[in-house]
Amino acid sequence: MHAEFMAEGMRCNQKARRHPKTTIIGTTAEVNAWGSSNPCCRRVSVMNSANKDQPSEKTLKKALITGITGQDGTYLSQLLMDKGYKVYGLVRGQNNPRIAWVQQFVKGIEFVEGDLLDQSSLIAALEYCEPDEVYNLGAMSFVALSFKQAHLTGEITGLGVVRMLEAIRTVNPKIRFYQASSSEMFGKVRETPQNEQTPFHPRSPYGVAKVYGHYITMNYRESYDIFACSGILFNHESPRRGLEFVTRKITTAVARIKLGLESEVYLGNLDASRDWGYAKDYVEAMYLMLQQPAPDDYVVATGETHTVREFCEIAFSHAGLKWEEHVKTDPRFLRPAEVDLLVGDCSKAQKNLGWKRSCNFEELVTMMVDSDIKLHEAQLATV
Ligand code: NAP
Ligand code: GDD
Q1: Whose CA is nearest to atom 10 of ligand 1?
Q2: Who has the most CB within 10 Å: 55, 131, 329, 345?
Q3: Is residue 170 a part of any domain in this protein?
Q4: How many domains does the chain have?
């Protein structure tokens, strides 16, 4: 089974509940009670195997990640832990099933309840975690759904950002803040490639909400001297990508067709062009932005663009299949307004952050196909 999908077991990383509005979520066999009030739990979080070579909790840098249960949350949390951080992950809902999914990949995260829709839960989370850095990855992030749930998208993806910034201003304005801005803000692009100066022209409620998040981040930096950065990240993918996004939809379909479980897949606009990179590389840029002497905004991209059709060609041929025989189009997957072409100029990130990618387009596509084939083979073996 691909390493990405090997369950690594459950682990204890709780500490006592200190704030009445913050529930620390029990995730292991070692600590059974939810929101345990046992003060020993604080020590357990430092002494577990994920953290044992790290300095004492007093000297640990602490980070709170919203969107911990998403693709980027898993890669960023692992990166920060490898660097010796104590990582807290904000999770919404009373029994979020995605916690178990995250724990397949990362050990030692302490989960804290909170929701970007709920201001007081964000304040409580900051008071409890006392983070040095907050990475705001939480969002309603699926562009197609944002057309159907425009208001909710605005609340979470847009106003959620100001709620977190206000929480930081209230609790501790020294906290460094990363905002997950998006190339979707460029929308109907005014120039190619797109850089930090390219004007925005969003084409979806999601893109509009991200523009708000971007500008409010800039505004809090300028108004209150908060160390707030936006990463304008272009599409980034991985075997952990959500199944609703086109790349993973294709690689899952390739795996299922290869194994005889399906024969075709229905897609929308095959001509759309995206600048697709590897998520694991992109979270490194997030971290680097918050380590600079001054806050700033950065484009993170590969500088290459490929169509959905090209993605299909490589993915299917890697599995020994002809994409034309299996890919059909369906107008249900077209959007009311489309972003036709994205390609980023990341020279500022390369120069100031020393950031570079490790994985090219073909390597990304084939990694995702291989992972999905292994995942499906493993699932079939258990039936
Ligand atoms: P993702 O896999 O869709 O994850 C989204 C995360 O947001 C999930 O953990 C989700 O939690 C959380 N969330 C949703 N509503 C929330 C709420 N009301 N309060 C708190 N958390 C909430 O996204 P991703 O691909 O990791 O992307 C991370 C961030 O980067 C997002 O902000 C996205 O818009 C942005 N971005 C992504 C890309 C890309 O290509 N991946 C490019 C540019 C920008 P649940 O599990 O509870 O649903
Ligand atoms: N999802 C999906 N499903 N997209 C399809 C399909 C399909 O069946 N067929 C064609 N596409 C096209 C979409 O119309 C779009 O042009 C392109 O494939 C990529 O779609 P997604 O994978 O859904 O990603 P996205 O580009 O809309 O948004 C992603 O990248 C943004 C950064 O530019 C998301 O991760 C956003 O959260 C992120 O900000």
Answers
A1: 67
A2: 131
A3: yes
A4: 1
Tens digit of pLDDT for each residue in 322-340? 999 999 999 999 999 999 9
70-87 in b/e form (b: 16+ CB < 10 A) is: bbbbbbbbbbbbeeebbb
Interval between CA 246 and ligand 2 midpoint (Å) = 6
What atom of ligand 2 comes closest to residue 342's alpha carbon?
Answer: 33
- pLDDT tens per residue across span 151-193: 999 999 999 999 999 999 999 999 999 999 999 999 999 999 9
Domain membership flag for residue 137: yes
Residue 116 beta carbon below 6 angstroms from any ligand 1 atom? yes
Q: pLDDT per residue over 44-97, tens digit each?
A: 232 233 444 444 555 799 999 999 999 999 999 999 999 999 999 999 999 999
What's the predicted TM-score (pTM) here? 0.90
Helices (H), the chain: 40-47, 71-82, 98-105, 119-129, 143-148, 150-153, 160-171, 205-224, 246-258, 279-289, 308-318, 347-348, 361-382
Q: Which residues are catalytic?
A: 182, 184, 206
Residue 176 maps to which CATH number? 3.40.50.720
Q: What percent of the chain has pLDDT over 90?
A: 84
What amino acid is encoded at 213 in this protein?
G
Q: Is residue 329 part of a domain?
A: no
Is residue 295 one of the residues assigned to a domain?
yes
pLDDT at 265: 98
From 235, 269, 268, select the one nearest 342 (Cα to Cα): 235
Tokens representing 4 are 């990405």
